[in-house]
Structure formats: C-alpha cells, structure tokens
Amino acid sequence: MTIPAAVQTLHPTSETVVEVRGICKKYSEVEALRLIDLDFPRGKLTTLLGPSGCGKTTLLKIIAGLIQATSGEVRVNGRTVTGPGPERAFVFQDFALMPWATVMRNVAFGLELQGMAKAERQSIARNYIAEVGLTGFEDKYPHELSGGMRQRVGLARAFAVNAEVLLLDEPFSAVDEQNRRKFQEDLLRLVDKERKTFIFVTHSIEEAVYVSDRIVLLSRRPGRVSQIIEPKIDRTASPDAIRRDQGYLDTVEEIWQGLKHYVD
Ligand SMILES: Nc1ncnc2c1ncn2[C@@H]1O[C@H](COP(=O)(O)OP(=O)(O)OP(=O)(O)O)[C@@H](O)[C@H]1O
Description:
Strand order of the largest sheet: 1-11-10-4-9-8-7
Number of helices: 8
Number of domains: 2
Radius of gyration: 18 Å
CATH superfamily of the largest domain: P-loop containing nucleotide triphosphate hydrolases
CATH class of the largest domain: Alpha Beta
Bound molecules: adenosine-5'-triphosphate
C-alpha cells in the first residue's frame, strides 16, 4: 500500500490570523469541546471534519463570537474575541437571504449597513455576483432562483463585505452534486484570489480533501483535535484530474480509516 501524501503539523506561522487557545465548551451537562488549540493562517482554507455532534459548528460559532466558550480564548490578529466583528463573516447553512430584496441588494446588504455609497457597493456586489456565476440575475428575487443559485447569492454576500475571516458552515449541504462541484471550484478560485482565512465545516470527506489546505479531524464528543492533515494535491490540475489523483484518493482513504470507527 502506498503511504498517503499527507503530513501532520501544528505549527503557528507568522501569518496566523485566528488563534484558538484552550477552548472548552459545555452546554449545561453536555461537554461539546475539550481543550482545542488551533492556528488558522491567512490565505488558507482549513476544514473542520469529524463525527456528528463533535462540536464543529460550536467551534465555528465561538470563533465568530456568536456564542461564548466556557473557558479558553480566541484571538483574531492578536485581539481577543468578545463578540461578532466586521473582520469575520459567518456563512450559514441556509444563507438567510432577505426575500423582499433583489440579488443585487442581498449581495450588497452588508456594505449598505456599513454606509457605503450605492454606486460603490453595487460595483463590488456586481464583481462577486459574476464570481459566483450569477451575472444577469441581479434584479431577481430569491423566490425566482433555484436553491443552488440562492446559495451562490449567500456566498457572494459573504465575500462582498470583505471580511478577513470567512466561517462557512456546510454551505453546500443542500445542493445537488453538480452544483456542489461547481461551488467547490468557485470556492477554490476565491481562496486563491482573495488571500483570506477560510474556516470550513463539512460532512463530506471528499469535499474536505478537494477544497482544503488543512483538515482538522475532531474526535467524537467532547470534540478534541485528533489529527491535522495537509492534503498534498496539485491544484493546478483540472478538477477531474484532481479527483483521480493518487494523493487525493489516499488522503480520502486515510481520513475514512480515521473516522469509520465512529460510524456504526
Ligand atoms: N444550544 C445547545 N444546547 C445544548 N446542547 C447543544 C447546543 N448546541 C449544540 N449542542 C450539543 O453540543 C454538541 C455539539 O454540537 P455541534 O452542533 O457543535 O456539533 P457538530 O459537530 O457541528 O454536529 P453535526 O455534525 O451533527 O452538525 C452536540 O451534542 C449538540 O447536541
């Protein structure tokens, strides 16, 4: 058997944007997370992967400042997180679009809240609408779009506010396989282009290996970091070639071997 092209590392770099230190979270009797220490570097996409209920969404929400840890600390650019902040954008599973607003207004809404002039925010929004393949749909309302298109609007909105840290909670979970693949490619292009810090939660091992620079495997609840894997994949290859790449296939297998004993 070939040795998977993946290595374990946990070294902070000078480019570390998000530092998670000693995070524990208890929901009354339920211990969701135990002593999580992680660093998230700029320009990289890190995926949190692990058995259902291991605390992935909880960790993402603690980093977002949407819920408080029981103990420990999160720092973003050296500053302790005490609540939500403009440098962090949280992309929810359902995207929570405003049904009464057009695609353009939805995508530009965060900028509107910041008080940006209309022409400027529309120009930024137009750019991200194009990035997610929705040019021509600017004046449509959410109910006139397919589920996959609505998710793209949500993604464009998150990018438009220009947050440094993007927290994505299973953004592709509700779309069909073809749309999902298209999204994954859009996401990889944006990671490459935008130099932001992406923290991504998914249930799909294949998706994690395809899109991630690093994969953090969490153990069963209480979630702890059990392994960190860096898939070594040539991302300049075509999407189909990547999915046939031996390094890709070996990493998928390695993660499956690590996770399968949690599934019965
Ligand atoms: N508000 C809450 N009150 C009580 N328990 C909660 C609350 N939110 C989450 N939990 C529990 O904490 C644990 C971790 O939940 P969380 O949603 O973070 O896990 P997850 O890994 O994202 O799960 P999944 O993979 O199923 O989406 C679970 O056992 C869940 O039931």
